[in-house]
Task: structure prediction
Amino acid sequence: MGSTYKRSLIKGIVWEAISFVITMIVVFFYYGDLESSIKFSLILTVIKAFIFFFHERLWKKIRWGKISEGRKK
Result:
């Protein structure tokens, strides 16, 4: 079973939203500056979202570990 580009994109956005909040909290507690925490987290989130999208698409092409619909275990 495959997935669409839209599904991969939405999946990446949802994951990065969660990651953004975690990163922002950690950076805030480390530096104590909310504005810097938000800026740092935004930049990191954008970079990671693009990497995740292409990582997801690459794994879609790899056949290793996939089973056909009729052979589910």
Observations:
- The chain has one domain: 5-60.
